[in-house]
Predict the structure.
Amino acid sequence: MSTPVLYPYRKFRFKLEIAGLQVAAFSEVSGFDASIDVVEYRDGNSADMTARKLPGLVKYGNITFKWGLTDNKEMYEWLINAAKGDVKQAATITITLMNEGGEDKASWQVINAWPVKYTAPDFSSTASEIAIETLEVAHEGLTRTA
């Protein structure tokens, strides 16, 4: 009996939920990363000439969302509310990768996310591209749930 070949999923099909609301029309989500600081420690009476390495703080990179400009201003207004100090609106964000058939295959949950940077589209009278808005969010944790 042969082992089935597992093909990796493609990254172009995904959906995004912010605080339980499904948000559509994002063209890109990037910046999923986590790193652990390394704390070096050596006892003063240790005969070893190297330091021990211990895990330190976990740090999460900001996540960037990009989407085509429409009349919807919800993401921009989320930033404005955060700028007024209303970070209690920190949200749980779920990003789900789907296969070509639309089935959910992998999912990540971002904890206590709030916007830290907004970028309006660039404009050019000779361009034919879509106008893209960008929102960067900070967060306190990233978990792969599926």
Remarks:
- The chain has a mean pLDDT of 89.
